[in-house]
Design goal:
Distance between the termini: 40 Å
Shape: elongated
Oligomer: single chain
Strand order of the largest sheet: 7-8-9-4-10-11
Radius of gyration: 25 Å
Number of helices: 12
Number of strands: 18
Order of helices and strands: EEEEHEEHEHHHEHEHEEHHEEEEEHEEHH
Structural class: alpha+beta
């Protein structure tokens, strides 16, 4: 069975877990003087408890629009956004404000601290507005949050009396005021020095360990690579995460082209994907499940060389060496395996446009070919 994936980019590494946030067929179209502009197109993605997600993409790619959909600051033109049992785009503005205050913490790039309130009062304010934390516990919690970010000595100072890095640290503490399950951070380290940025990032890592879901927009590839999952957006569409995993240096338009070309294939138990000696016409990526690579020895004995799981690639040896299939690929267990198929022709075209990606695939192909030859030669 196969289907186009041009409108569906899903992360399947979380199995049957229930997502904390789910976007289904989300589109956002803005009306402009030049005509309608599509900022988001057919977005399908799930986020799970305890994930730290880095959202990346070029300026104007749709990152902020995506975040505005999740926070309820803006509404989709079409589609559904579900957080827990709530469908956000069905809530009234007043219900949305109450939901946001109880469930969401937001850290803005430019802090957004109220200048007429002390740091202590800035952290206290969300608790007073949302009535989540009992009244008698609020001041103690505000001081505890200041201590947590190492700013307790500055409790009575005004935002203008501290540095930008310190203000961002306070903004993180304020976002935690009502102990939200979800934290949204829009370029939280973009205006910070490296030392302060590292401290803020460490706070997010601690929150993840506590089970919070963190979604962070960033232009910093080094920070994005340290998150538990990356979501890459280009021209309002999601690049498939498996393609980004294998082709990080490739331009986003090329990765989006490849995403559109992917086809989903279900491999049934006992059904070979590739047989040893066959001509290989396509490249495959394991999306879900396990496949076994079986190598034929000279006397006819078949040996299992390796098991490959989600994210692994198949067919790169044959494409890069022009050899027939070097092994037989079968599902490992008695369960179907989900694969993504990319035509060999398009794969070869992509490699010719990025020498670094081609080099990495060539290294992988050489390594696997050598391993298969060693298995065949072993007595």
């Amino acid at each position: 069975m196969q289907a186009s994936l041009s409108e569906k980019v899903q992360d399947k590494t979380n199995g049957d877990r229930t997502p904390v946030i789910s976007l289904h067929q989300v589109n956002k179209v803005f009306e402009t003087d030049a005509g309608p502009f599509t900022a988001l197109k057919n977005i399908n993605i799930d986020f799970y408890q305890g994930e730290f997600i880095g959202v990346t993409g070029k300026s104007g790619s749709g990152k902020s629009t995506l975040i505005n959909m999740i926070t309820g600051i803006d509404h989709p033109t079409k589609g559904e956004i579900r957080v827990g049992s709530d469908v956000l785009n069905h809530l009234s503005e007043s219900d949305m404000a109450r939901w946001r205050g109880k469930n969401l913490g937001i850290v803005f790039q430019f802090y957004q601290l109220l200048p007429m309130l002390s740091l202590f009062e800035n952290i206290l304010l969300p608790m007073d507005l949302s009535d989540v934390i009992p009244f008698e516990d609020r001041e103690e919690r505000a001081m505890w949050l200041l201590e947590r970010v190492g700013m307790e000595a500055y409790a009575d100072k005004m935002p203008s009396e501290i540095s930008g890095g310190q203000q961002q640290t306070i903004a993180v503490a304020r976002a935690l005021a009502n102990d939200p399950a979800i934290m949204i951070a829009d370029e939280p380290t973009g205006n910070l020095d490296s030392k302060t940025a590292e401290r803020v990032f460490h706070l997010f890592e601690q929150m993840r360990q506590e089970g919070k879901t963190i979604i962070m927009i960033t232009h910093d590839p080094a920070l994005a690579n340290r998150t538990s999952r990356q979501v890459v957006i280009s021209d309002g569409e999601l690049i498939h995460p498996i393609l980004h995993q294998h082709m990080r240096t490739m331009s986003h338009p090329l990765l989006l082209q490849a995403t559109h070309a992917l086809e989903s294939v279900t491999l049934q138990p006992g059904e070979p994907l590739i047989r040893s000696g066959d001509e290989v016409e396509d490249i495959y990526f394991v999306e879900n499940g396990l496949v076994s690579v079986w190598v034929d020895k000279p006397r006819g004995e078949r040996v299992e060389a390796v098991q490959l799981s989600a994210g692994c690639v198949l067919g790169e040896i044959e494409t890069l060496t022009n050899l027939p299939a070097q092994a037989t690929i079968l599902p490992t267990n008695g369960d179907p395996v989900q694969l993504l198929r990319l035509s060999r022709r398009l794969f070869e075209q992509l490699l010719e446009k990025d020498a670094l990606v081609k080099h990495r695939f060539s290294q992988l192909a050489h390594k696997r070919l050598t391993e298969n030859q060693m298995i065949r030669a072993a007595i």
